[in-house]
Amino acid sequence: MSLIGVFDSGVGGLSILDEALRQLPQHDYIYLADSANAPYGEKSGAWIAERSLILCKYLADAGCDAIVLACNTATAEAIKQIREQLQIPVIGVEPGIKPAAMQSQNGVVGVLATEATLKSDKFNALLATLPNDCRFIKQAGAGLVPLIEAGKADSEEALDLLAKHLEPILEAGSDTLVLGCTHYPFLRTAIRKLLGDSITLIDTSDAVVRQLKRQLELLASDDKLTIQDHGSVNFVSSKDDAVLLQMAQNLMHSNLEMHAVKSQMLGNIK
């Protein structure tokens, strides 16, 4: 049994935690949401890198054996520095443009992500490795994260904004859509309401958790082996831990009642 930290700017990383609890329910988790500062996608790269490093150090100091940087923006801006500073595995997330390119039938792929992710060196370096015969329609989803954070993922307001963001992707004839922010899987219902089944949706939650599982297997040792079916989940928020817990219960498919669950506020950290 390991203690795993899952960090995001807000509730988006709950999509990763949900998959982790499905595949690896026996471990203990700390879910850290920096909701007081969400969204990260509209902040400077320097601020994102500094803040993400501080919060990942907090998780390491709390005893985490591995950390999932469950935020595309933080991964793009900060994962290199975080890995250099910490002595534990740090698993990042990035838009699934490679699997999207492989699955697309017509070679036109829409990428819905934050402005910071789309402009990042990491994203564009990944893009440069892919075949030229696939065209990527990049669209920043400005305004979507705050709506999801406010519990309005299925609202008419979110539907209207999403329709505007999807318009250039649809006009280009995309048959595949990359959900390039961990918040965006919570828009699946709204996307299907707008598009039906006419487009293939790609998110990387499963791939991220499989990578986490590989890292945990490398760390496995006799002194960490404990027989239990379901571990604990501690929800930590920089804004309102009760709201975070309620959002987790509303958004996640996992049965949190199977785990020992608690919530707490993030104290002052340096």
From TrEMBL:
<feature type="binding site">
    <location>
        <begin position="40"/>
        <end position="41"/>
    </location>
    <ligand>
        <name>substrate</name>
    </ligand>
</feature>
<protein>
    <recommendedName>
        <fullName>Glutamate racemase</fullName>
        <ecNumber>5.1.1.3</ecNumber>
    </recommendedName>
</protein>
<feature type="active site" description="Proton donor/acceptor">
    <location>
        <position position="181"/>
    </location>
</feature>
<dbReference type="InterPro" id="IPR004391">
    <property type="entry name" value="Glu_race"/>
</dbReference>
<feature type="binding site">
    <location>
        <begin position="72"/>
        <end position="73"/>
    </location>
    <ligand>
        <name>substrate</name>
    </ligand>
</feature>
<dbReference type="InterPro" id="IPR001920">
    <property type="entry name" value="Asp/Glu_race"/>
</dbReference>
<comment type="pathway">
    <text>Cell wall biogenesis; peptidoglycan biosynthesis.</text>
</comment>
<feature type="active site" description="Proton donor/acceptor">
    <location>
        <position position="71"/>
    </location>
</feature>
<keyword id="KW-0961">Cell wall biogenesis/degradation</keyword>
<dbReference type="GO" id="GO:0008881">
    <property type="term" value="F:glutamate racemase activity"/>
</dbReference>
<keyword id="KW-0573">Peptidoglycan synthesis</keyword>
<keyword id="KW-0133">Cell shape</keyword>
<dbReference type="InterPro" id="IPR018187">
    <property type="entry name" value="Asp/Glu_racemase_AS_1"/>
</dbReference>
<dbReference type="InterPro" id="IPR033134">
    <property type="entry name" value="Asp/Glu_racemase_AS_2"/>
</dbReference>
<dbReference type="GO" id="GO:0009252">
    <property type="term" value="P:peptidoglycan biosynthetic process"/>
</dbReference>
<feature type="binding site">
    <location>
        <begin position="8"/>
        <end position="9"/>
    </location>
    <ligand>
        <name>substrate</name>
    </ligand>
</feature>
<comment type="function">
    <text>Provides the (R)-glutamate required for cell wall biosynthesis.</text>
</comment>
<dbReference type="GO" id="GO:0008360">
    <property type="term" value="P:regulation of cell shape"/>
</dbReference>
<dbReference type="InterPro" id="IPR015942">
    <property type="entry name" value="Asp/Glu/hydantoin_racemase"/>
</dbReference>
<dbReference type="Pfam" id="PF01177">
    <property type="entry name" value="Asp_Glu_race"/>
</dbReference>
<keyword id="KW-0413">Isomerase</keyword>
<feature type="binding site">
    <location>
        <begin position="182"/>
        <end position="183"/>
    </location>
    <ligand>
        <name>substrate</name>
    </ligand>
</feature>
<dbReference type="GO" id="GO:0071555">
    <property type="term" value="P:cell wall organization"/>
</dbReference>
<comment type="similarity">
    <text>Belongs to the aspartate/glutamate racemases family.</text>
</comment>
